[in-house]
Write a structure and sequence with these properties.
The complex is a heterodimer.
Chain A: H1 2-31, H2 33-46, H3 55-75, H4 79-92, H5 99-121, H6 125-169, E1 173-176, E2 179-185, H7 190-207, E3 211-218, H8 224-239, E4 243-247, H9 251-259, E5 268-270, H10 273-284, H11 291-298
Parallel strand pairs in A: 2-3, 3-4, 4-5
Antiparallel strand pairs in A: 1-2
Helix pairs in contact in A: 1-3, 1-6, 2-3, 2-5, 3-4, 4-6, 5-6, 7-8
Chain B: E1 5-8, E2 11-15, H1 22-38, E3 43-47, H2 56-71, E4 75-79, H3 83-91, E5 100-102, H4 105-126
Helix pairs in contact in B: 1-2
Classes of the chains: A alpha/beta, B alpha/beta.
Chain lengths: 299, 127
């Protein structure tokens, strides 16, 4: 009984000493702020990190990172640092700063601070040890926080860009009243197929289209689930009262469609985009006549 | 929930206002098929814009309506199927085969007008 109590007391005492050591450490870092900050900025330039930024910018960022770093050490909470890391990443990623640079500068700061601790406490080896015990876990955690913040921000940007590319990859264009074309280029994966269906059906509704030309000249091949999806899209479009003309089927795609046993009565296909648009115009009742011919006719 | 059926010129227009039970659907079918010759309609429009779901029973009933009305000498067009509804129907294999569909009421009316004109031409050519 008294044993467990002892353990609790010892843990408590250790926690308290860790806290007091961290306090001492923070006081030391505050005191040496100007000098250490300069040393760090110098090392960054020397190591040729953050080359995309000017010296003044590096110094300004170094100052805020330093202050945030000390604050995280002092309070033991990492939310503010995390927010700052995210904000910093947002600013420097567009300028081409790489992951290794961000990790590099944080590790440099850790080294600079450790060196300064060595210099201050080198006479009292035991005390140095205890201070490092308190400092190292916190410093490592800070380095990880900043690095993770940076990577997360990059991933967020990549996700956004992927979304943008996907949006761009299925344009719905109106060529005439009631006539849309959807040129598809590149491989259609299941997700893109879903998006294509959505865009096509929504496009029919918003543009009040009667005929849609789906041009897949730029699609090298499709697998059978996607082929099925395509056929279903054509049928769904019919339920909205629109006709879909598929153009530019490659021999491979034709093979796939035949293999899944497509009902050719439901699928309207024309060889190329030009033929598809001409067929669509016929369905809509347009007649395209050469200028000279029409003049000759009226004369 | 009864579906109101309006007469507009030579056409009957049934506008579904909310989700229908199977009973409602059967009643709609019977009323439409009965009414179509009573008022000598040339076409019937069933507007399903308000439906979020069209299941297999609804699809079959709509198809039956269209076929029965054709046998009674008129044309049917289903209008206003929502894009999401259309795709989930197709996924379930419900394609309303042989039934005319249009985007909305306006398109449906235009379709019936075209049909009527084509019919007239045919009759004239026959004479």
């Amino acid at each position: 009984m008294s044993g467990s109590q002892d353990v609790a007391t010892v843990t408590q005492a250790r926690l308290e000493t860790t806290a007091s050591r961290l306090r001492e450490l923070v006081a030391h870092l505050r005191h040496q702020r100007a000098q250490l900050r300069e040393e760090w900025a110098r090392l960054i330039t020397e190591a040729k990190l953050l080359t995309a930024m000017t010296k003044e910018e590096i110094f300004a960022e170094a100052t805020s990172v330093y202050d945030n770093y000390v604050e995280a050490l002092e309070t033991g909470t990492y939310e503010a640092l995390q927010a700052y890391a995210r904000n910093l990443s947002e600013r420097i990623i567009p300028r081409g700063v790489e992951t290794h640079e961000v990790v590099g500068i944080v590790l440099l700061l850790r080294d600079v601070l450790a060196r300064s601790l060595f210099a201050t406490y080198h006479e009292d080896f035991n005390k140095l040890n205890r201070i490092l015990d308190a400092y190292e876990p916190a410093a490592n955690r800070i380095a990880a926080t900043v690095a993770v913040g940076f990577v997360q921000e990059r991933e967020r940007i990549i996700r956004e860009q992927q979304e943008a590319i996907r949006e761009l990859s299925t344009p719905v264009l109106q060529v005439r009243e009631r006539l849309l074309i959807l040129p598809i280029i590149g491989v259609i994966d299941p997700q893109r197929a879903r998006q294509l269906t959505e865009q096509l059906l929504r496009g029919i509704r918003t543009n009040r289209a009667k005929v849609v030309v789906l041009d897949i000249t730029g699609v090298p091949y499709i697998d059978s689930p996607v082929a099925n999806h395509l056929v279903q899209t054509v049928e769904a479009a019919r339920l909205l009262g629109a006709t879909v003309i598929v153009t530019g089927l490659s021999p491979e795609i034709a093979q796939t469609l035949v293999n899944i046993g497509v009902d050719l009565g439901k699928m309207n296909t024309v060889g190329d985009l030009q033929g598809g648009i001409e067929e669509a115009e016929r369905l809509l009742g347009y007649k395209v006549v050469l200028m000279q011919e029409s003049v000759a006719q009226s004369a | 929930m009864q579906v109101p059926i309006l007469k507009q010129g030579a056409y009957l227009i049934a506008t579904v206002q909310s989700a229908l039970t199977d009973e409602d659907l059967k009643q709609l079918r019977d009323t439409l098929v009965l009414q179509v010759s009573k008022v000598r309609a040339r076409g019937v429009i069933v507007d399903v814009t308000a439906l979020d779901v069209i299941d297999s029973f609804a699809t079959r009933t709509l198809r039956d309506v269209a076929y029965m009305i054709r046998l009674r000498g008129a044309e049917t067009v289903i209008v206003g199927i929502q894009p999401e509804v259309a795709f989930s129907m197709v996924k379930l294999g419900l394609t309303l085969e042989g039934v005319a569909t249009s985007l909305d009421l306006e398109e449906g009316l235009a379709y019936l007008d075209r049909k009527a004109k084509a019919h007239e031409r045919e009759v004239r050519a026959h004479r």
